[in-house]
Model the fold of this input.
Amino acid sequence: MMGDRDFRSIVENAISSIGKELNIEIDSADIQTIHLHEVVQCLRRSYYDRIDPLEIERRGFSDLLSGLLRRLQYGSEPKEFAIEDIRLKGQVDMLVDDSIMLFRGTAGELDNPLANDVLYLNACMWIYDKSDGIIVYITGDKKESTFSISRNKKMFEEIIRRVRVLNDLLKEQKIPILEPSTECSECQYYERCFMKKKNAKHLDLAEMLGFGNKE
Ligand code: SF4
Done:
């Protein structure tokens, strides 16, 4: 708190407002259009986002990087890929010299690209019909890790399978199964899938195993 004003919450509100502006707009009722980001993340999360959404908590401006670039549209109009009567819709951050580029904010330098970013980039290479793709991760202290990827058909077939699954479950109004991963700890639906965070107890493992300090 500084003076009468809580500057932290002012900044959080600002980030949240910009985030809402930059979000890819989804028409929840149009289940024949599936957005690529919905199938590279947990399908249950995407289902809740459409049927009974909770607001996501954004933690910093790095979360907004990709959305800001998409909004500037460096040659990257959204594109659709037909899967029978379903449209898979994707949008890249940038198209440069016939290569697709994605930019992501990250806490630290990475040895490997994140799996959902690889799936997203690979699918974009099929949707935009390009053979080269690059993901650039940028940390808060301006370090970058860059990875280049060639397109892979099997990986895209997995995306197509997930598009069909999400479409079917939305039609049948059935909640997708849990997909436990590191994504869960930051997911706004954690308490629906697992337990109320406030009920979690701190367990002293040493004490439980009888190695507690007896002095
Ligand atoms: S908590 Fe995990 S399993 Fe549940 S919706 Fe979120 S990402 Fe999916």
About this structure: The domain at 7-177 is CATH 3.90.320.10 (Lambda Exonuclease; Chain A). The chain has one domain: 7-177. The longest strand covers residues 99-106. The chain has a mean pLDDT of 83.
